[in-house]
Specification:
The protein is an all-alpha fold. The chain has one domain: Lysozyme, CATH 1.10.530.10. The chain is about 70% helix and about 0% strand. It contains nine helices and no strands. The N and C termini lie far apart (about 40 Å).
Length: about 190
């Protein structure tokens, strides 16, 4: 009986250590996320959810299409951000810096979100655009046979021909809800 108690205590302790490490790992960019989100008028929970989905908080990750860093920012999106800020001597490798990446990614996400502000659920459209591009979003919107003034995000999600994009949007929206309480309490 004593042996099982020790094993149980070790197991509980191990789970506690893993939980603590994951929590610290996920929260290590929170201050930078809040700054970038505030600068571009986005909820920090949304920015953090995108970071979770795009990179799992690894600032060195690179995508197959040249995306870099926490928010998997493309060279084109990063250059738009640099041009908007009138940055000179900008190179795409600077996006590996977590703060720079969060600012460039948040700038782009904010821009895309504004593009769909007249829809019934701008986040669904903006996240689909962030993941699959504007051309695909416009194609999926036209497949719903609804004029832009009368959008239906449920039909839009169903019209997506990329199941990965649908899953991407759903997972970020779900994860965002989880992070909302985190930022509300200031943890």
């Amino acid at each position: 009986m004593k042996r099982w108690s020790v094993i149980l205590l070790l197991l509980i302790g191990g789970v506690g250590i893993v939980w603590f490490w994951i929590s610290r790992y996920e929260n290590r960019f929170d201050a930078q996320i809040q700054l970038a989100a505030q600068r571009y008028r986005l909820p920090p929970s949304l920015v953090k959810a995108v970071v979770w989905k795009e990179s799992r908080f690894d600032p060195t990750v690179r995508g197959r299409a040249g995306e870099i860093g926490l928010m998997q920012v493309t060279a084109v999106a990063a250059q738009e951000w640099a041009d908007a800020l009138k940055l000179t001597r900008y190179s795409h490798e600077q996006i590996l810096d977590p703060s720079t990446n969060l600012h460039a990614g948040s700038y782009y996400l904010s821009k895309v979100l504004q593009r769909y502000s007249a829809t019934d659920n701008p986040l669904a459209y903006a996240l689909a655009d962030y993941n699959a591009g504007r051309r695909n979003v416009l194609r999926w919107m036209s497949a719903t046979n609804a004029p832009q003034a009368r959008t239906n995000s449920v039909q839009f999600m169903a019209a997506m021909t990329f199941p990965g994009t649908r899953q991407y949007v759903e997972q970020i929206l779900q994860r965002r809800r989880r992070y909302e309480s985190h930022f509300a309490t200031g943890r």
